[in-house]
Each structure stands twice: as C-alpha cells, then as structure tokens.
Amino acid sequence: MAIYLTKESKVLVQGMTGGEGMKHTRRMLAAGTNVVGGVNPRKAGRTVDFDERAVPVFGTVGEGIAQTGADVSVVFVPPAFAKAAVIEAADAGIGLAVVITEGIPVHDSVALTTYAQDQGTRVIGPNCPGLITPGQSNAGIIPADITKPGRIGLVSKSGTLTYQLMYELRDIGFSTCVGIGGDPVIGTTHIDCLAAFQDDPDTELIVLIGEIGGDAEERAAAYIRDHVTKPVVGYIAGFTAPEGKTMGHAGAIVSGSSGTATAKKQALEAAGVRVGSTPTETARLVLARLEEQR
C-alpha cells in the first residue's frame, strides 16, 4: 500500500523537454515510474528517447490524458508559467499535480492551489521535491536509491531532510515519502498526509518533519492528538535560527515566540509525539518506537 502514488500511477511531465525535465524524467523512469508522456505545445507529436524508451510529447495535458489515461502530472515549468500549467492540468481532470517549480509568486500559488482544489485535483508543492513510493513510483526529484519499501510514512517540509531521514532509516524502509514544500502556500499539508497515512494499513509509524515559521506544525499536533492513533515521531529544523529572519524556505520566518522550533516541539510533544533534536536522534527515536510496537 501507499498514499497518493503507486506502481499503477501514469505520469505526465509538464516541461519534460526542458533541461530539468529531461534530467529528472530519466531518473523517474530509472526508478520504475510509469512516465507515459510529456507536455510541450511547441514539440507536440515528437518523441524523446530515454535510454531506449521513447516517451511521446503531447500538446496539452488533455491530449496526454486522452491518449494514455494519465492521472499524475509532474510540473517542471518556469515560475511564470506554473499557474497556467496547473490550471491546465486541473481543467483536464488530472488527479494529482506535483509542482516542483521554485520561486512561484505567492499570489499565483494561492490561485493555482485554490483552483485545483475546486476542480478535485490534489497539488503537492509548489517548491517541493515531490513524492516517492519506494519500489513502485517516483514523481519528482527525490533520489530513488537511498531507501527501500517499508512501513514508515514520511511527510516533510524540507527536501534535504526528507533525503536524510530516508537514508538514516533505509534498513526499515518507507511506504511513501511526501515532500510537501516549504512555501507559505502549499496544496497538500502535514494534516492531509497524516490522515492518509493513518488510513494506510501498511504504514506502521509516521515521521513528521517541520521547520520554523508559521503554525502548520502546531495545527498538525492538534490533529494528531484528536485523530491519529499510529505512533508519530517528529523533527523540527531551526532551533538556532535568529528571530525576525527568513531562513531557507519562504515560509520559515519567526516573529517573537510565534513559529519557533521550541514552540513547535512543545506542541508536538504535548500531543504525544516524540521529537528529536537532530535527524540522527530522530531516526533513533523511530527505531525505539518501532521496537516498542513489537
């Protein structure tokens, strides 16, 4: 089992013929992802060869869905065109849009996430590494060779911390790892993933990675307290960040005591979540918690 992405998922890549799109499409294919096409109106009708596999290019997402049955789109288009790309995918009826693009204006992010939600399209991101169900499918830029299938579900704001925890816990493995992105406005939240992992019978434990800024982790803590029965282990990045400074992601700004790592840690611990002070300690807490479950 998995959440959002399985071996049955059929993936279109919007922006596949660009530099980043080409590079990561090749990596997704190598990971076993069923990439069924790319989208570029200027190159429609062509095919692109990826290590002896020819992938067709369609003029629109709608054409790609009609000819392949695609249900996932990975968006590798420049920031100025990201809103239009997601709206096009949502209008075509895509079920999941994974928006890798960084630097999308906030008002565009508000528009594209709201529109997609109204159309029934789930957005992962923007400014995210995507998601991976190890051994089945990889939609985005997450390295596929640093872990294996297993029983841990991972949801994270940070791409690099996603990779680190995947590697630290590689001997246990993961059901699905979701990088939700660290922008102020995102389509899928910690809470969405917590609910999905709670309902996934093959996810035994959930790892939640947050960071300073905003109140997403505090809201996730309240949700865990009221709705999640599976064990949750957390890590919050930014304990040494100075107040009033934007650190890393656009959403990571601390004002007074609001949004601090300490406040988030306290909220999670009050909900029964064990929170590590480093990624390595977090991995140790996961192993200890799994041992207690046996």
Automatic annotation (TrEMBL):
PROSITE patterns found in the cross-reference section: SUCCINYL_COA_LIG_1, SUCCINYL_COA_LIG_2
Residues given in the record as substrate binding sites: 163
EC number(s) given by UniProt: 6.2.1.5
Catalytic activity annotation: GTP + succinate + CoA = succinyl-CoA + GDP + phosphate; succinate + ATP + CoA = succinyl-CoA + ADP + phosphate
Pathway in which the depicted protein is active: Carbohydrate metabolism; tricarboxylic acid cycle; succinate from succinyl-CoA (ligase route): step 1/1
GO molecular function: nucleotide binding; succinate-CoA ligase (ADP-forming) activity; succinate-CoA ligase (GDP-forming) activity
Record has Ligase as a keyword: yes
Residue positions binding CoA: 17-20, 43, 100-102
GO cellular component terms, semicolon-separated: cytosol; succinate-CoA ligase complex (ADP-forming)
Chain ranges of the CoA-binding domain: 4-104
Keywords noted in UniProt: Ligase, Nucleotide-binding, Tricarboxylic acid cycle
Protein task: Succinyl-CoA synthetase functions in the citric acid cycle (TCA), coupling the hydrolysis of succinyl-CoA to the synthesis of either ATP or GTP and thus represents the only step of substrate-level phosphorylation in the TCA. The alpha subunit of the enzyme binds the substrates coenzyme A and phosphate, while succinate binding and nucleotide specificity is provided by the beta subunit.
Similarity comment text for this entry: Belongs to the succinate/malate CoA ligase alpha subunit family.
Quaternary data: Heterotetramer of two alpha and two beta subunits.
Protein name (database record): Succinate--CoA ligase [ADP-forming] subunit alpha
